[in-house]
Amino acid sequence: MEKRTVFTMNTNSVHLRFSAWDVLAFGLEIAAVVGAGVWGQQVAGWPGLIAAALTVVFFWGTFLSPKAPRPITGIAWPLTKLGVLSLAALALLPAFGLLPTATLLALALLNVFQGGTR
Fold it and tell me: Is residue 11 part of a domain?
């Protein structure tokens, strides 16, 4: 599937281009942090929220982000990404119900299958 540019910005010789797929991927990353935070808050209050959210941010930034210092590659990358996003979606189930959880899972599947391997 071809990536189409949604937004282009030139500022001080910095050229930013991203597509709708990039926006979806970023939204899912934010949802993963929120899902972990909601779960952590339900389990252990505010300290749990902070710890769970920071754990997801650290894991994603270290292994799954585009500029990760220790990137997961090959078939393990989409499987790990899907695993993290699925756990985050399931963590939202008690707080938000079935429809938002199912929507997040469907978007995660779409994003992972669209993204291929690294």
Answer: no
